[in-house]
Amino acid sequence: MRRRGLWAAAALALFVLGGLMVWRGYQRSPAMAASSGEADVGGPFALIDQHGQPFGDRDLKGRPSLIFFGFTYCPEVCPTTLSHMSAWLKSLGPGADKLNVVFVSIDPDRDTPAKLARYLSAFDPRIHGLTGTNAQIDKVADEYRVYHKKIPLEGGGYTMDHSAAIYELDGQGRFVGVLSYQDPDAKSLAAIKALIGA
Q1: Backbone angles phi and psi of 12, in degrees to 5
Q2: What share of the chain is helix, strand, coil (3-state, %, to 5)?
Q3: pLDDT tens-place string over residues 67-104
Q4: DSSP assignment of 81-123, as one string?
Q5: In this structure, what DSSP letter does residue 57 have?
Q6: In whole angstroms, what is the distance from residue 139 CA to residue 123 CA?
Q7: DSSP codes, 115-145
Q8: CA distances from 67 to 36, 63, 161 (A)
Q9: Of 4, 48, 97, 163, which one has the fewest beta carbons inside 10 Å?
Q10: CB count, 10 Å around CB of 40?
C-alpha cells in the first residue's frame, strides 16, 4: 500500500512538473505572445552591417521587416533560409522594395563584417548582415527571444545551436509573427505579401 502511495506521489510530481514546463514554453513562445495581443518581442539595438556601417532598430522603421538569426558556418538551416529569402525577394518583384530583410549573426567571434559580406554575396544583395560584440548580440537575441548556444566540437572548434524562426515586424518595428523554416514557400510568400500589403 505504501509503495502504491509513493508511485502515486511520483506520478503527480511528474504531471505537475510537465505542466509547468509546457506552461513556461508557452510563456516564452513568440507565436503565443502574438496571439495575446501584446508581444514582448524585439527592442532597441545597435549593431554594424556587413559594410561596417552602424545599423540599429531605427533602421527598421518605415518598412516591414523579416529578421533571421544564424551564422555563416551553419551547415544547412542558415544557407537554406537565406536562399528562400532571396527567392521571396525575387518573387515579390517591385514589392521587395517595401521590405527590410536582415540576417543577424549569433557568432560574432567569427562573423566579422568582412566575413558577412563575403558570405552574403551568394544571396540577394538586399539582405542586410549584422554583427557586433558578444554583449550586443546577446542583448538583441534576448530581446527577440532567440535561443543560441556555442557547442564545442571534438578535435577543437565549435558550432552554434540556435532557433530558426524568421521574425516578422511591421513598419513601426513591432512584432507581428514568425515564419517557420519548414513552412512551404507558398505559405511564407503569402504571409510576406500580407505583411507589406501587396
Answers
A1: -65, -40
A2: 45, 20, 35
A3: 999 999 999 999 999 999 999 999 999 999 999 999 99
A4: HHHHHHHHHHHHGGGGGG-EEEEEES-TTT--HHHHHHHHTTS
A5: G
A6: 27
A7: HHHHHHTTS-TTEEEEE--HHHHHHHHHHTT
A8: 21, 13, 17
A9: 4
A10: 13
